Amino acid sequence: MDNLVTVSAAILYLLAIAAIVPGLVHQTGIRTKTVLTTAILALACHLWLLSDLILGSIGQNLSILNVASLISFIISLVMSIAMLKNRIWFLLPVVYSFSAINLLVATFVPSTFITHLEQDPKLLIHISLALFSYSTLSIGALYALQLAWLDHKLKAKKSFAINPNLPPLLMVERHLFKIILIGTLMLTGTLLTGFVFVQDMFAQGKAHKGILSFIAWIIYSVLLWGHYQKGWRGRKVTWFAVAGATLLTLAYFGSRFVREIILT
Fold first, then answer.
1. How many CB atoms lie within 10 A of CB 12?
2. Which superkingdom, per the lineage (predicted)?
3. Lowest-confidence region among 82-86, 179-183, 225-229, 258-262
């Protein structure tokens, strides 16, 4: 049953992508209702699968593949809601593709990392903040890449840059810094709850998570300061946003990828 739901979710994500791409390529109208309907169905299937993959009678299976699938679900959900107000058609195919791939891999390449969050609600708060901060800042990195791409196309005077399905450059920039601000605040909460609630945060095998996350927090803080105080724009913003997201990816997934995937 789970395999059937997984395949159905992947197909629905692909159908949503198929409804978007022609409009981007041919500069024609995109049927928002069609995209939204298929995306909602895909997200519903995705959520059902996540409940089976993560929640169990012996604890919560927070394996690296399940966590990656959960993060891709959060990002797809947020971006699907944002679709109703903003022209984010350029980003949705990327987001939905990752969701489909992550869900397929998590289902057909099972892995196990059992935790018992019901016994430690403080740890649940810390992990929830970490998931949402990483998801938010990953969206910020996507916006930064879109900003750089649009800027390049405009400077090159490419007609594709004035596609009516693409958002204005200044709007993307404005949303980018709002997203990074929110993500940085949640990352601050993640670090604070880590220091307070996680007693062995800097124990062997875990120290890199705190260190890399703190360096990422510094990068995002400098980026926000540079933008609001010095007017930073352009490539510098993109590099900072992508660097921060990369460090968080290494912090959250680096060692676990080696232990759970490569060494198993």
1. 22
2. Bacteria
3. 258-262
- 147 vs 86, 154, 189, 237, CA distance in Å? 14, 11, 27, 9
Instruction: Report pTM.
Output: 0.91
Q: Identify whether the C-beta of residue 31 lies closer than 8 Å to the C-beta of residue 224.
A: no
* pLDDT tens for each residue of 125-144: 999 999 999 999 999 999 99
Write phi, then psi, for 55 (nearest 5 degrees): -90, 130
Q: Strand, helix or coil at 114? A: strand
Compute CA distances 65 → 48, 61, 230, whole Å: 16, 10, 40
Per-residue CA distances from 203 to 119, 121, 127, 248 (Å):
21, 21, 17, 18
Please give the Cα distance from 51 to 34 (Å, whole number): 26
Specify whether the CB–CB gap between 14 and 100 falls below 8 A: yes
In angstroms, rounded to a whole number, what is the distance separating the alpha carbons of residues 103 and 105? 6
Q: Which tens digits make up the pLDDT trace of 236-251? A: 999 999 999 999 999 8
